[in-house]
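Dear Dr. V.,

Thank you for agreeing to look over these. As mentioned in my earlier message, I'm a first-year student in the group and I'm still getting used to reading structure tokens, so any feedback on how I've presented them would be very welcome. I ran two proteins. I've put each sequence directly above its structure. The first is here:
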Amino acid sequence: MSRLQWRDEFSVGIAEVDHEHRELIQLINELQKDLRAGCDAEKILESLGEIYAQIAAHFALEERMMRKTRYPAYAEHKEDHETLMDDLRDIMDDVEDDGILNETQLTDDLDRWFSDHFRTHDAKLHRSGHG
């Protein structure tokens, strides 16, 4: 699992949003450190739960902003949020069921989210004056 790095392309130009995105990257990198250290499934689930909760809160805030401003791409943006949350929930269920974390799936999902979602959906939302 490769370490996620903040890249300028992730920036949406709003300090609070960029700060939350940086915090998420930090949580993910802490999870990777725990995995390398051989932490048990309980600790991994705790870390995944923290990531899940922080992402859910961040998405809820964005979705409230989009509804308030009648953001035109709301449905597409919300669907992308729901896809990532479903993927994370599936990964957490797998760890709960058999104590195994699919690191490749997690890395792929998170990399897709950071690379694609931040740069496209979040950048459009926040640069359009709706954020």
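The second protein is here, in the same arrangement:
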Amino acid sequence: MKKYPMLEKKMSELIELQKKNETQLAKTDAQLAKTDAQLAKTDAQLSRTTEILSNIGINLGKVTEEYFYDTLKEKMSLGEIKFDAISFNLQHKYKNKQDEFNIVMYNGKALAIIEIKHKVHPSDLEKLSSKKVESFRELFPQYKHHKIYLGIGGFSIPESIVKEALKKGIAVLKQKGEVTLIRDEKLKAY
């Protein structure tokens, strides 16, 4: 190859460049592997965080529903209307329709559908006044002649929603003060 020193030099440079590229590619592959591992850890953490937040939301909703159910169970009235029975988280499927109603109170002529949210949003009020009544009538045709009254309850209800609900004739249920039931009949010292 002495005849072509320029070619030999270029070949040598190309071989050296190829070695550098292979070294750089190996480093890049190693970095990509580290990045992939970190992304996998991040995805796993995000999944755990999503699950935790979802559970918190579900728990807040259940606590809120239970609070208002216990309150209404004691009173069994809405406005001046007295009710004889109350259902909690009433779920029903009829034909191809299915729905759930947080609290329903009944008497021989009327019923009340109470939707409970931890924090009430305008869309909750709209859904209650339009979709929930229609859904209840479809799912429970035996109550077609009953008057239906509505209520919306929550631990947090913006004043604008309170005004809109009252304007529509919908009862508003809010927590007020510190109402706590204390059972201490068998209290003992430890």
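From my reading of the second output: The beta strands are 77-78, 81-82, 85-94, 97-106, 110-119, 147-156, 171-174. Helices lie at 5-75, 122-139, 159-167. Does that match how you would interpret it?

Kind regards,
E.
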